[in-house]
Design a protein that fits this description.
Blueprint (H helix, E strand, L loop, with lengths): L9 H12 L3 H17 L1 H7 L4 H9 L18 H14 L1 H6 L1 H10 L6 H11 L4 E4 L14 E5 L2 E8 L10 E7 L5 E7 L5 E3 L16 E8 L15 H33 L16 H38 L3 H33 L11 H11 L4 H14 L9
Parallel strand pairs: 1-4
Antiparallel strand pairs: 2-3, 3-7, 4-5, 6-7
Amino acid sequence: MSSTFFSEPLSSVLNIIATERGWSDVKSDVALRDYFARVGSGAAERDRTRSLPHSEIRELASKGLGALRVPLDLGGNGWSVPDLLQFVYELAVADANVAHALRNHYLITELLLTFPETGWRAERLQRVAKGAIIGEAHAEQDGARMGAIGTALRPFASGYRLDGKKFYSTGSIFADSIWVSATDQDGRLRWVDLPTDRLGISILDDWDGFGQRLTGSGTTLFDRVPVAPEDISPEDIVSGDRIPKQSVFAQLFMTTVVAGIVGRVASDAVELLRHRKRSYRHAIANQPREDPQLLEQIGYLSSYAFAAKAAVDAAAQPLAAVTDSFRATGDHHSAGEVASLAAANAKLAVDEIALKAASLLFDVGGASATSEKLGLDRHWRNIRTLSSHNPRVQKARGIGDHLVNKVNLPPFSF
């Protein structure tokens, strides 16, 4: 499995970062390449058999790859946002399910970086540095409106009790702890950080989407879960000053995963054509790998992979500026608007390119490429599922209204 296709090699990025951090360039590069290769080689089979990638995610955590954004002084790697997204891209080329399953982990880590430098914050970031994976449970299916929270946090004994039901709990089934949104007795939104093995927590693998089937994006139940005061976040992670950074990061992360799938599609197409033996009677060449029409499709796929990667790379820079602005001044609304527009533009372009690429793959491979053993249909299914998050019709309208009528982009994911 080629780990990437017509994108800037991860090795060059790793070598730069490794030199700055004092790592061994070769060891860092080789270890990651080997990891990506192992993850990628089993991706199709895991999808076919619905085998959750527990060992793949555990290995990632044990290598410290969950702590890429954690500051050096807290035991992490201190990577920048663009560095992290480069890693996410490469991981998505290997297996989009593994990359997507970690979105909430990296999102919560990113949010912790915006918190005041307290012991509460440091303790959780140090857990990540030691290999802990964080999950999240926020969305609910039973609400009359999007964002309505029915999960309740109520005083009980010397602490609190948590009761509720969440869905779209992406990644929580692999996690050591889970961040849960709930309303307290005064109707305020609160966030609770709990170990996933806490009594009363049940995480189900009941996500039935036709794509991204291995991300653990199903139901989490909370039945009289005991909560200590120190489990409750002192900060509101969806407060006004964090909304731009939170939403843009979450959206661009997802688009980066889609771009990674395009890279894998292009790589798979090259391998298909290189080893394809049979051709059509009326084909221009006897050998498929010499057929100009088929080679032309490879050229298109190359350009789609290049364009998708370039789009997310370009959008990563304004997001990095948001991080810098928040760190310097505690405010990032103006930078957040620029980053939000960049992430939205990237999503629209990449989604369209990606779906086209996933279909074009079968023009290269022919009918034999539809074999379930190859699992190539997973690329289209995964892209379609990912692109349905924050639907593009709303995204395109928001961009148009912003450009024509100077209307601010929505602050949340849109």
